Amino acid sequence: MSTTATPATGKQTILSVESINTYYGDSHILKDLDLRVDRGETVALLGRNGGGKTTTLKSIVGWVPPRSGRVMFEGTNIAGREMMRNARAGVSLVPEERRIFTNLTVAENLKLAQITAARPGWSLDEVYAHFPRLQERSANKGDEISGGEKQMLAIARALVQDTKLLLLDEPTEGLAPLIVREVEAIIREIKSKGMTILLVEQNFYSALSVADRCYVIDQGQIRYEGTPDELRGNTDVLSRYLHV
């Protein structure tokens, strides 16, 4: 499918979220929300707890379909489509809970993801080359590896499925500072291979260290868009919406 060029940059927009409204029951969570992600970009969506960050990702993949608005992925409106169909099109969500199979080994988790993929993505050799710790732990079950290793495995499972747009929900949540640095390095590495990433993150400093561009969300609406450097210099936005 085709993508559209962003006039200001000339880059190809792979994802365009256009005025979506998402509800949980009668609770109006996302309110005419707009954002875009260009091909090859890493975009961070920042905000306080309860602001709508995770709901935005769920609305994109079809977990919680928006009641109105469009989610344009590679020129096609995927709003309301089944999650599996969107995953097969190349939209992969790595949820905060990671959701690996704890009763399967690392290798079995990866092979199962390969089997269920619509098209092949990374090979196991490529995964192990970029995630050597997973190769070391390949025979260990999911409940026998650390939190950081579980996050690596969750990301690697998405990569073996020919992912075009990787959605990461709080990838550093609950991890020790040293492991956070490792996850940041992984994000930079897969970005260098051309991966497009939309990242939801509570850790402001971690997100800005990997992002090309960022949005700030509050009460279901985008309040700010800019580069990491621009956001760092905007004391009003930092104090009002991020408590930094």
Description:
The protein is an alpha/beta fold and 244 residues long. It has a domain at 1-90 and 164-174 and 194-244: Rossmann fold (3-Layer(aba) Sandwich). The protein is built from 10 helices and 11 strands. It has helices at 53-61, 83-89, 106-116, 124-130, 132-136, 147-159, 177-192, 204-210, 228-232, 235-242, and strands spanning 4-5, 12-24, 27-38, 42-46, 68-73, 76-77, 91-94, 165-169, 196-200, 213-218, 221-226. The strands form 2 sheets. It has a 6-stranded mixed beta sheet with strand order 7-8-9-4-10-11, sandwiched between helices. Strands 1, 2, 3, 5 and 6 form a 5-stranded antiparallel beta sheet that branches. It starts with a strand and ends with a helix.
What is the name of the CATH architecture of the domain at 1-90 and 164-174 and 194-244? 3-Layer(aba) Sandwich
In whole angstroms, the N-to-C terminal distance is 40 Å
pLDDT averaged over residues:
91
Largest sheet: 6 strands, mixed
Proportion of beta-strand residues: 25-35%
Q: Widest sheet: strand order?
A: 7-8-9-4-10-11
Rg, Cα atoms, Å? 17 Å
* Class based on secondary structure composition and strand pairing: alpha/beta
Number of helices, counting only DSSP H or I runs of 4 residues or more: 10
Spans where pLDDT lies below 50 across 5 or more residues: none
The helix-strand sequence is EEEEHEEHEHHHHEHEHEEHH
| Count of extended strands | 11
Give the CATH level 1 class of the domain at 1-90 and 164-174 and 194-244. Answer: Alpha Beta
CATH topology of the domain at 1-90 and 164-174 and 194-244: Rossmann fold
